[in-house]
Amino acid sequence: MPSVSISVSQPGADPAELESQVTKKVEDAVAGLGNIDHIISTVNDGYSNTTVNFLLGTNSDRATNDVRNAIAQIRQSLPQDINDPVVKRVEFAGSSIMSYAVVSDRQTVEQLSELIDQNISRVLLSVKGVAQVQRIGGRDRDIRVDLNPEQLQSLGITATQVNDQIRNFNINLPGGRTEIGNSEQTVRTLGSAKTIEQLKAYQITLPKGGFVPLSSLGKVAEGYAEARQAARLNNKPVVAFSILRSTGSTLVTVEEAVRETVKKLEKNLPSDVKLELIYTLADHIRDSYEASLDALILGAALAIITILIFLRDWRATLIASVALPLSAIPTFAVLRLLGYTLNSMTLLALSLVVGILVDDAIVEIENIERHVGMGKTPYQASLDASAEIGLAVVATTMTIVAVFAPVAFMPGIPGQFFRPFGVTVSASVLFSLLVARTVTPMMAAYLFKDKGHHQELKKDQLSYQYRRLLTWALKHRAIVLILGVALFFGSVQLIPYIPTGFIDRDDTGLSTVSIELPPGSTLQQTDSAVQQATQLLLANPAVDSVLETEGAPTVSGGASGGGGGRASGVNTASLYALLTS
Predict the structure, then answer these.
(1) Coil, strand, or helix at residue 234?
(2) pTM (2 decimals)?
């Protein structure tokens, strides 16, 4: 789904100002691009986000470049104090797949935050398929410079001037190149302070001349930034982190690799630190996969048993049974070639056609058995029967393909989901036709017994009763027609009672509660409301545990790996209630 987001941040800006000075200009800049479906903008305190959704089929890379060029052209007309706009393609596979809570009885929240940022994140980011380790809660380290207003006034310098000099000092810049001996070397100007003592001793230039150390203008101390987010597990403060997977990776594969890495990582962590898995989306996917696979195996077994009951010949049953795997296994090669995975749609398609895959083989077997009963050798019967029934077998198979193949070309968002379904059904049915026209006659030619003379068809009670029912139906055609019409309209009356929806409502065992307080609410007020909501949830016997995130960060693609996300606001919170199994 081609979608591009434009994020612009301006710390301290009012939403009304951002809307008029930034958001509207961004929307006007991208509105002229082609193939746009709709544009959605969200404006908060100091932050504006515009999402441009393009029509399906639009090249995502080209759309992203077009949006980036459009924003670059209006950069000069935007406020100068904003951070550079971030234009990126929206990746729908980049959501959180699992979360861990870092619990310790002895370490503080600040120490756990540093442990995640400096240790845990770096190890987990090396796992293939992990795009980001996002810290939830905790606090970031920083150095605070609390200036003394009276001292600044006495020296005739403003806080802004001091801030500019500190910013210019704490930076590394390229310094050109020089020749040393017979080689050329690059030169870098290193200005950042390595220790807090160096920062305290940094000489601030006064407007009237002279220098004073930074420490004489106020207090310089190393500490932690103001808390803008928090996390709790069952109302107990914790520091948690979420794993986000990269585009193109398989969720279950990434989740299993993370679990193995966490087991190894726990051995190197302090003994009092424990990593508790809060939730994972892979469990639900594994359960769905196993259920679909069980249904597929059960359907195949029932199909084989049904064939045995009606054909009453183990040789014919064996030949029909071989057609099942020989038709399904090559389908996996087609899925791999097209880049499809074993998901709900492809497994649903295989479960649906498991009974159809043996249809062509049964028709071939039954006709070959009839020719063997006429006194022909199995080899000759296979040749004559397959030639006789060939056109009918091809016609029935192509009818099924004609029904399901168009599903693979459905337009719109449903087409994105049902394309693998239509391809899987069509491919497996075509392979079943190939097996029925080649493997089935060959096996029948060597497995069937030579009867030697003409034999009457087998007569049993089942055939006798079926012939009686068929004879009665032909004699009472009006009654049969009335029963058929009544059954049809009766089935139509049941349609309103069937649940409808694009995607079925799966029970993932995880419920999410979103809380938003009025704008201007503090983190302490949000925390109080979250604790009350958590107590109500934990009082429910169906709830196993609750993870609370206040001011939860959003994915920003930061390189730090820990806590790199931008907080969505201290007045918002999310509660993740893990239900009992």
Answers:
(1) coil
(2) 0.68
Amino acid at 536: L
- What is residue 129's DSSP assignment? T
How many whole angstroms separate alpha carbon 451 and alpha carbon 373?
A: 7
What per-residue confidence (pLDDT) applies to 190? 65
Pairing verdict, β 3-9 and 47-54: antiparallel
Given a cut of 50, the residues of the chain with pLDDT beneath it are 554-567
Cα separation, 153 vs 576, whole angstroms? 51
| Averaged confidence pLDDT in the chain | 83
Tell me the pLDDT tens digit for each residue of 463-500: 778 888 999 999 999 999 999 999 999 999 998 888 77
How far is it, in rounded angstroms, from Cα 253 to Cα 238? 27
Residue 351: partners with Cβ closer than 8 Å, 6 or more residues away:
292, 295, 296, 299
CA distance 308 to 317: 6
The tokens describing 122, both together, are 């770096």
Place of tokens 């068929």: 470
For residues 433 and 393, is the Cβ–Cβ distance under 8 A? Answer: yes
551 conformational bin, left if phi > 0, alpha if psi -120 to 50, beta if neither: left
* H/E segment holding residue 159: helix 159-169
